[in-house]
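Model it.
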Amino acid sequence: MLMENALSVNDQVTKIAEKWKGKEGNLIMILHEIQGQFGYIPRDVALNISKVLDIPLACIYEVITFYNYFKLEMPGKVNIAVCMGTACYLKGAPDILEEIKNILNIKEGQTTPDGYYHLDVVRCLGCCGLAPVIMINGKIYSKVQKSQLMEILSKYKNKE
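Modeled.
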């Protein structure tokens, strides 16, 4: 059963890579499609892309690590993004970030050991008039205060 699943993953990756093979900018498009399907870029998938496109694995990792969008680890079920754009920064986003890190006991870019929460920092969410803002699974929370964070995060606990 596990081997069948692994084969189907390899087949999916090969199909995606073949679709973009020979097209300019293909690696980024392939990585976008892979991440859209899996939520991140697993190492074995990157290796498969390397073989199909005949590109060194190191080159693939250069692209993955250059762009902040691509993830090398499976994201949590609840993805938290703290905006650190100028308006949010000046209105207290660093304190919001520190409080979330303390509550979840993780650093930015990490996922809690149970795989539930993932914390990222972003440069701007485009909600400058509502600063400071955080985004959780696509939902924007505006004018966030440290005192609200426990309540906000508890809305997502064990919500599947």
